């Protein structure tokens, strides 16, 4: 009968030395997961910013049922410079025969005499657009409320297609919201006004809309912040 020596059990010191290796391996996996999550977030944010920039460059002059001007600040019935730039683009589109109806939208703040929609309609009619070709939807304190109000007004008139007029960087989000509301929507943004004057305002607009669009897609809540002090 042969005899084989038994291996001595590892000492407590040896067992203790082995534990940090397992802990170190788990730490590496945690770091990899965190790094992967950060990378995925950066790709998502970067991809969204690119889409905001791409859609901002689109000018689609296809014929539609209506031209929608997204509201902005007005002062006692006088549109702000941002709002005037949008209204000017809508006026040009109407003159080209893109649509037979211009829709202005937007409510008013406490203390205001006029709504954004009413101020926009007055501006357009003062510049020669017939009053019966302008519909003022006098509600909405943010983009989502405004889009939903316009979608309801259009459906009640059997209208379904719309050209959206806003600042270039706002185009992607407004188009997304309009399509979610059941409208056949495309964009022809203004190319003038404070939102497009400088590289700084352009970068600010893209960054702002990237965050706002991601927030909307995640929550379906609005995320409206000012582009400029005059908006």
Automatic annotation (TrEMBL):
Residues 65-210 form the DUF218 domain. Keywords: Membrane, Transmembrane, Transmembrane helix. The chain crosses the membrane at residues 29-53. Residues 1-17 have a biased composition (Low complexity). The keyword Ribosomal protein does not apply. It holds the Pfam family DUF218. Residues 1-20 are annotated as: Disordered. InterPro entries: Cell_Envelope_Assoc (IPR051599), DUF218 (IPR003848), Rossmann-like_a/b/a_fold (IPR014729). This is YdcF family protein.
């Amino acid at each position: 009968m042969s005899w084989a020596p038994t291996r001595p059990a590892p000492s407590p010191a040896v067992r203790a030395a082995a534990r940090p290796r397992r802990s170190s391996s788990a730490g590496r996996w945690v770091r990899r997961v965190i790094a992967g999550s950060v990378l995925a977030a950066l790709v998502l944010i970067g991809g969204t910013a690119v889409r905001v920039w791409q859609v901002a460059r689109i000018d689609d002059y296809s014929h539609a049922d209506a031209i929608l001007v997204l509201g902005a600040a007005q002062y006692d019935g006088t549109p702000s410079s941002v709002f005037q730039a949008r209204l000017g683009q809508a006026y040009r589109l109407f003159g080209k025969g893109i649509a037979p109806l211009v829709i202005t939208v937007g409510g008013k703040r406490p203390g205001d005499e006029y709504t954004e929609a009413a101020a926009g309609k007055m501006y357009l009619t003062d510049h020669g657009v017939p009053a019966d070709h302008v519909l003022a939807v006098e509600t909405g304190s943010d983009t989502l409320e405004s889009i939903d109000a316009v979608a309801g007004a259009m459906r009640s008139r059997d209208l379904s297609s719309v050209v959206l007029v806003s600042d270039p960087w706002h185009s992607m989000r407004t188009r997304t919201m309009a399509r979610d509301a059941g409208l056949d929507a495309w964009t022809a943004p203004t190319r003038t006004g404070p939102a497009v004057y400088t590289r700084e305002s352009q970068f600010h607009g893209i960054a702002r809309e990237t965050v706002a669009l991601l927030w909307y897609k995640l929550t379906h809540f609005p995320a409206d912040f000012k582009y400029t002090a005059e908006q």
